[in-house]
Design goal:
By secondary structure, this protein is of the alpha/beta class. The chain is built from 15 helices and 15 strands. The strands form three sheets. A seven-stranded parallel sheet has the order 3-4-2-5-6-1-7, with helices on both faces. The chain has a six-stranded parallel sheet with strand order 8-13-12-9-11-10, sandwiched between helices. The chain has a two-stranded antiparallel ribbon with strand order 14-15. Helix 5 (113-122) packs across helix 8 (173-185) and helix 6 crosses helix 7.
Length: 439
């Protein structure tokens, strides 16, 4: 795998380690918003510790948090001389010998946000063991909270808000992680630094409403990847039939069931393909061949030589870095953050980026809100009217069906829950960063 120093840097284009233009604040969550490909993880592991702790830092005083197991694996594998997975320090659980072991090892402690939440549940002051907390891909901290909250509101719609909140706290480890990072940001003895290419609306998360934040100033000419052409499409089935055999294509698709269906389409048109996702998915376990391929991608950065088309989903959206030249990337999702992150898995310029868009128009949430489609129970007739009101069309020119629009709304950050009234179920849609006002 190429090292950062061996990669070509265009003239006047800076890596993150060269682009920092300000000091950090000890009483705030320091946000570094920088594009994919500028060396965020390299900076966080190789540069930041020495900037803050001196030329011979205590690496065991640094906590490195990341969103996925694949990301954790990648950091530990790439920087094995400086970083170590938390689980490797222990036989099981939270050991009294933990402090002694990390002191002896003197390596950065790496774990997922979910694991961090588990430890915060067991030891509320766990983060106080560290001087620096690095939150990589922190934009993905919140979505598991929103998903779990939606499930609870759906299944326990008749329970009071206090009961729903208690269930959320008991079930969602990421909620504990968010709260602990907030306390750390307010602790002058712990420097917290968040890294992301797409921090989005993290400043509006309910759990971080009063989080002190500081956006670290950066030089404007930071290295980033480019694409020669960007093409909008509406039907992946149709697009797959146009892909050339013998050339590499990376495709992002949200759901594993959809990946499996699209793989059948690839095979039918003569394209060799493979799909990789989380090793922890019990409903769709990977084969030994898939597990081996996933591990090889993470550890070598190579696109599998045996396939034309590689499918990934959200579990790999921020966690793999492919250095093999790949001419095209397809992102089968309309969310802008997902489009940026999934494209960034190819760590070089590409020829063509294909982005899903159901129509040439963008979804106008404000206009739809004015028409009264949000924060109230929607009947079947309401849903049909909602679909018509968007003006969005499918690839045959027909108004979108509700299930397709529902997915598009979720991609745009809306929350959708069900409410049973009498014998019928109704959907209630809330705009991004807003709780439903409907009872």
């Amino acid at each position: 795998m190429p090292t950062l120093s061996s990669l070509y840097v265009p003239q006047n284009s800076l890596y993150l380690s060269q682009a920092i233009r300000g000091n950090y604040q000890n009483n705030a969550f320091n946000v570094i918003e920088a594009p994919c490909g500028c060396g965020k993880s390299f900076y966080a592991v190789e540069y930041l510790p020495k900037q803050i702790l001196g030329d011979n830092p205590q690496y065991n005083k640094i906590l490195y948090l990341i969103d996925t197991c694949a990301g954790r694996h990648g950091i530990v594998y790439k920087y094995n001389d400086l970083a170590r997975c938390y689980d490797d320090f222990l036989d099981s659980g939270v050991s009294v010998a933990f402090g002694k072991r990390i002191a002896e090892t003197n390596k950065i402690v790496v774990m997922t946000y979910a694991k961090f939440g588990v430890l915060c549940r067991l030891q509320p002051d766990f983060i106080k063991r560290f001087s620096i907390a690095i939150a990589d891909e922190f934009h993905n901290l919140y979505w598991p909270i929103a998903v779990e909250r939606g499930k609870i509101r759906n299944y326990y719609s008749n329970e009071p808000a206090s009961k729903q909140n208690a269930l959320l706290e008991a079930r969602c480890n990421n909620l504990l992680a968010v709260r602990s990072l907030k306390r750390a940001a307010q602790n002058p003895n712990i420097l917290t630094v968040g890294l992301s290419a797409t921090p989005g609306g993290s400043d509006k998360w309910p759990e971080w409403e009063d989080m002190p934040r500081y956006k670290v100033p950066l030089a404007p000419n930071i290295k980033h990847y480019t694409e020669r052409d960007t093409i909008r499409y509406s039907s992946l089935d149709t697009l797959l039939q146009t892909l050339p055999s013998g050339e590499k294509t990376l495709i992002y698709v949200d759901h594993i069931t959809e990946i499996k269906r699209y793989m059948e389409v690839c095979r039918a048109v003569g394209l060799s393909c493979a799909g990789v996702w989380s090793e922890n998915n019990e409903k769709h376990p990977m084969t030994e061949e898939q597990i081996s391929m996933r591990r090889a991608i993470i550890e070598t950065g190579d696109f599998p030589s045996s396939v034309d088309v590689l499918f990934i989903n959200k579990s790999m959206e921020t966690s793999i870095n492919i250095y093999t030249p790949v001419p095209r990337v397809v992102v089968h999702a309309t969310g802008k953050d997902t489009q940026i992150q999934a494209r960034g898995r190819i760590r070089s310029d590409i020829d063509t980026l294909y982005l899903l868009q159901h129509d040439a128009r963008y979804l106008d949430l404000e206009n739809l809100a004015a028409k009264g489609y949000f924060d109230r129970p929607l009947s079947q007739e309401d849903k049909r009217a909602f679909c018509e009101a968007t003006g969005l069309k499918d690839c045959q020119g027909h108004a979108l069906k509700w299930n397709t629009l529902k997915k598009t709304l979720i991609d745009e950050g809306c929350q959708i829950r069900q409410k049973r009234i009498g014998t019928k179920n109704f959907d209630i849609v809330s705009r991004p960063d807003r709780d439903s006002e409907a009872e």
